């Protein structure tokens, strides 16, 4: 849910004004009631003061390196082709 909102917001800021952005939230907040919607949980995990990135890190190729934050890669690998399918 948060990732969808993060990416939709970034696209809305970076695309041309006439581009329409549709975001699909596949689950509701009830799943997160005791986590990200709970102030005590967020405080314990440093989420209330965390500065979220406003744009993705970029990599050129999916296996370039291990990613540890929101990352964008324009190249998509066919999962059925295996690693030889580069």
SSE map:
Layout lengths: L1 H13 L24 H6 L12 E3 L11 E3 L13
Parallel strand pairs: 1-2
Low-confidence stretches: none
SSE order: HHEE
* Strands side by side in the biggest sheet: 1-2
Principal-axis shape equals extended
Distance between the termini: 31 Å
Q: What is the rounded Rg?
A: 17 Å
- Proportion of strand residues: 5-15%
Structural class of the secondary structure composition?
A: alpha+beta
Q: How many distinct helices?
A: 2
Give a verbal description of the structure.
The chain is α+β, with helices and mostly antiparallel strands and 86 residues long. The mean pLDDT is 87. Helix content is 22%, strand content 7%. It has a two-stranded parallel sheet. It has two helices and two strands, in the order ααββ.
